[in-house]
Amino acid sequence: MTLPQTPSFRLEGKRALVTGASSGIGLAAGVALAQAGAHVVLVARGRQALDAVTAEMTAAGLSAQSLQLDITDIAATEAAVQSHGPFDVLVNSAGLARHSPALETTPEVYDAVMDVNVRAAYFLTRNVAKGLIAAGRSGSLINLSSQMGHVGGVDRSVYCATKHALEGMTKAMAIEWGAKGIRVNTLCPTFISTPLAEQTLAIPERRAWIESMIKLGRVGEIEDLMGPVVFLASDASALMTGTSLLIDGGWTAD
């Protein structure tokens, strides 16, 4: 009898592009992929924080470089992907959240959130896939969605709209590129202790409600996303595409 072998979670020889990489989930994703053996190109708008993260990672013996880039600049992003790619792995973690009651949403807020969470994500994912197809390579493209891509949330009409759109986009791209060996999935966390969630979590009654909705009884930490990111990036998830990996502590279970 020949025993089956667990597919590798290792990423040696892989090049990964991680956006929103100077803090929060993006930072955790970049570190996780580098620890698994990938060379990681870290992308963010702010140079200082990005360079500090890159320096700390390289000092720890990880393979990383920084790339200052605003992904809402579609032409600049396409040029950067062409110049630094092709990328075997994408983790699109850049995101924007501006919460307000739906009746108070302004067109400016709507456009700003849509621009980052949908438009920039769409063209970034497309450009990375374009590079892989031109090189005849397979890959794993991961879009950071949210549990809010599967449910609704108070004061989150625009944010939920962007994440539901991201889920649909991901499924369609997965269907289109599956025959080329390019997998496209979403990672859907619950509330995670990051600068993005800080404003909400600082309100005691709102935090209490959030913790009551999370069946495991706690807000997530960025470390909770590191294993799932490596899983989706690696051969361990080779038959997964067009789907969502929910890291929500059971929020969407009922």
Descriptive account of the structure:
- With 254 residues, this protein is an alpha/beta fold.
- Helix content is 44%, strand content 15%.
- The chain has a seven-stranded parallel β-sheet, sandwiched between helices.
Task: Give the helix/strand layout.
Elements: E1 15-19, H1 24-35, E2 39-44, H2 47-59, E3 64-68, H3 74-84, E4 89-92, H4 107-135, E5 139-144, H5 157-177, E6 182-189, H6 198-201, H7 204-213, H8 223-233, E7 244-247
Parallel strand pairs: 1-2, 1-4, 2-3, 4-5, 5-6, 6-7
Helix pairs in contact: 1-8, 3-4, 4-5
How far do the termini sit from each other? 42 Å
Largest beta-sheet details: 7 strands, parallel
Contiguous low-pLDDT stretches (5 residues minimum) are none
Radius of gyration: 18 Å
Instruction: Give the number of helices.
Output: 8
**Strand residue content:** 5-15%
Q: Might you state the CATH topology name?
A: Rossmann fold
